[in-house]
Amino acid sequence: QLLPISAIDVETVEVTFEENNGQPAYTINLLKGDKLGAALTDVKREYYVFDGWYKGNEKVDKNYIANEDCTLTAQWTPEDYKITFDLSSTFFINKQYKVLNKNILK
């Protein structure tokens, strides 16, 4: 005998994603016990490298099993930049600059 879908007890969990990149948080529903799978995507933030999704201090991946409501937070590392000055440029002629704590001082 087939049961109507409304008669099947399906338990779901809410997974909230906080990207920390200026975008609002969003929530998805998964079946309890399911893996995050394709729901776990890389995100972008200007001048930062995405380090992954974390539940508290625990890094999670697509194999993470959602057994309860949770919040996943994106972690970021600032990008490093190398600045090269062309000292033969007219901008630098007769000027002195110092680098102090990563700041350029005139």
Could you explain how this protein is built, in words?
The chain has no helices and nine strands. With 106 residues, the protein is mainly β. The strands form three sheets. Strands 2-1-7-4-5 form a five-stranded mixed sheet, with no helix packed on it. Strands 3-6 form a two-stranded antiparallel sheet. The N and C termini lie far apart (83 Å).
Oligomerization state? single chain
Low-confidence stretches: none
Count of strand segments: 9
Strand order of the largest sheet: 2-1-7-4-5
Shape: rod-shaped
| Helix and strand element order | EEEEEEEEE
Query: Per DSSP, what share of the residues sits in E-state strands of 2 or more residues?
Result: 35-45%
User: What can be said about the biggest beta sheet?
Assistant: 5 strands, mixed
- Number of helices, counting only DSSP H or I runs of 4 residues or more: 0
Rg over C-alpha atoms, rounded to the nearest angstrom = 24 Å
Mean pLDDT over all positions = 82
* N-to-C span: 83 Å
The secondary-structure class comes to mainly beta
Bin the helical content. Answer: under 10%
Could you list some keywords that capture this structure?
about 110 residues; mainly beta; about 40% strand; two-stranded antiparallel sheet
Short description:
This protein is an all-beta fold. It is 0% helix and 41% strand. It has no helices and nine strands.
